[in-house]
Amino acid sequence: MLEIINLKAQIEDKTILNGVNLKVNKGEVHAIMGPNGSGKSTLSSVIAGNEDYEVSSGSITYEGDDLLEMAPEERSHRGVFLSFQYPVEIPGLSVSNFIKTAINEKRKAFGQENISAKELLQLFKEKCELLNIDKEYLSRSLNEGFSGGEKKRNEIFQMAMMEPKLSILDETDSGLDIDALKIVANGVNSLKSSSNSIILITHYQRLLNYIVPDFVHILKDGKIVMSGDKSLAHKLEKEGYSFLN
Amino acid sequence: MKIEPKISEDILLDEVTSKEYKYGFTTNIESEKIEKGLNEDVIKFISKKKNEPDWMLDFRLEAFKVWKEMEEPDWANINYPKPDYQDIVYYCAPKQKKKLNSLDDLDPEMKRTFDRLGISIDEQKRLANVAVDIVMDSVSVATSFKEKLAELGIIFCPISEAIQKYPELVKKYIGTVIPVRDNFFSALNSAVFSDGSFCYIPKGTECPMELSTYFRINEAGTGQFERTLVIAEEGSYVSYLEGCTAPMRDENQLHAAVVELVAQDSAEIKYSTVQNWYPGDKNGKGGVFNFVTKRGICHDNAKISWTQVETGSAVTWKYPSCVLKGKNSIGEFFSVAVTNNFQQADTGTKMVHLGENSKSTIIAKGICAGKSNGSYRGLVKIAKGAKNSRNFSQCDSLLMGDKCGSHTFPYIEVDNKSSKVEHEATTSKIGEDQLFYCNQRGIGTEEAVALIVNGYCKEVLNKLPMEFAVEAKKLLEISLEGSVG
Lengths: 245, 485
Fold this sequence. Notes:
- The complex is a heterodimer of chains A (245) and B (485).
- Chain A has 245 residues and is of the alpha/beta class.
- Chain A has seven helices and twelve strands.
- In chain A, helix 5 runs parallel beside helix 6.
- The two termini of chain A are 32 Å apart.
- The mean pLDDT of chain A is 92.
């Protein structure tokens, strides 16, 4: 599904990713862990197509195509979803209108008709139940006045609505209390299938108790320095990043 | 509140077309117009052409006399070449080619403008509870639903017709809210106004449909001087929509309208405007100069709401105002003003509190893009006798890019201690992070801008009647095309 080869990226003159290699197959869950400033969020931004970052070398292939050639919205249409670490607020734009627009833009890109009101309402109902969300929230302004936890849950709600093939969850666990974490993890688990993949970016092992990864990678100084199975996360939790030195 | 007028399209169509015929537009394609320039003879010509009574001519001549002594104001935050008032044609009546068999036979250019806005004439026909009065170059050519309204005693007709049929009403109210000498442009309008709308709602009557007028400048080089008078008698209600569209023109066109509203005791008038005059091209060439005077007077317990979405014109000078004369009267002003490219707008409102317990609310949203300049200018005046009156003002500006300018000029005068005035102002920019967030969800940048802008304007757009809100949203999108990225 996704293959990253020797990816180097910088912001302004500062190199942040320094030769990342990563291969994610269909149906796999990968966790990327690492200390602050190791380049985790940069990696997710580059995959999503944030133009603040400049890719200086390397490649990202998605479903056999050059992902770096695609505009951010095209990546989205093709099924790449980023759950933002800091979701932005758009005053006056309702959650439902935003999601409806996102779904219809994707449909338009594939020459499909807009989603019918009936279908959309059904989908809203289903996914609200999945994530234990009050339907009233659909009419609120996007992320405006949301608590940290609400924002994160809103990201996963959008993920559920858009049914992406590759989801990148950038520190979705931060700011969530334990109950909210369980709800979000449950939601993610139920969206998991043999045909989609998930990249979890996290500081803590905590989330991985609920969403069990197939692979754990440790990112340090812009490189993946170690990979393993979920036991690596436990080791990290116990010993801290110092054991890498 | 609304009744469903079961009038079929065919009847409406027939009515519209026969009305056009009735006004005598028969064979000529060309407009009938007079020589350029303004003098007493021109005014007499206009008045005679319209078969006006002497008092109307006297009103015009008096206004002309006053106007000649006035100076064109220059305090607004706008720059434009002052028009040569002797180089303007002051009367022009369109003539239809032939009797129209259907609305589809309308001028294709006009139709295209309507279509682009998503409000084609066809759609308007289907909007069965909207009565449409189309004003093309000064003379009304179509009026519909008049009979329906007449049953309730409601008068909705071109003001030229009202002068003939209801002279006592027009004479009683015209120039009472906006006196002839109020300002340079209102004086000019009073001297030369061509046509406009007249609306009268009798005591205790709730007008069952939105009254709607479409204005359009049709003939290059013709100034348009609309005159509108809305009178809501005691305890009555009316919602009035005014929409303006103009096709592309190379030369500047002057527009100086006057709108007067009278809300008697316990009456309510909602006046909504979507203004889309030609703004000039991307290089600032051409476009309409829009100098409008709009004011309403509220008697005891009366309410006037102005809602406007201003996207057009090269230059806008416009301050829809309320004189809150009566006790417990309410004035509201909800505005979205968009400027792009080289457009300039100096717009806002005046809320003059005279009555006790009078209240006013101002929500003004400015959006500036390109190299444009947008200013909010608002006066809140609370007179000594307006005890316990209140005002709340909120002025927000949204900037797109770094070459535009946004300014706020609030004037607050409070002459008693029991009143309360609040003013809030914010300035924001559309963030790269907001755009990227939308992009990541598959929403392209143009569409994202439209979503963000519509969200920003929501409070105001929500005040518009629904079919108008749809049009206004499209207009915002069209106006801001290409302004980001």
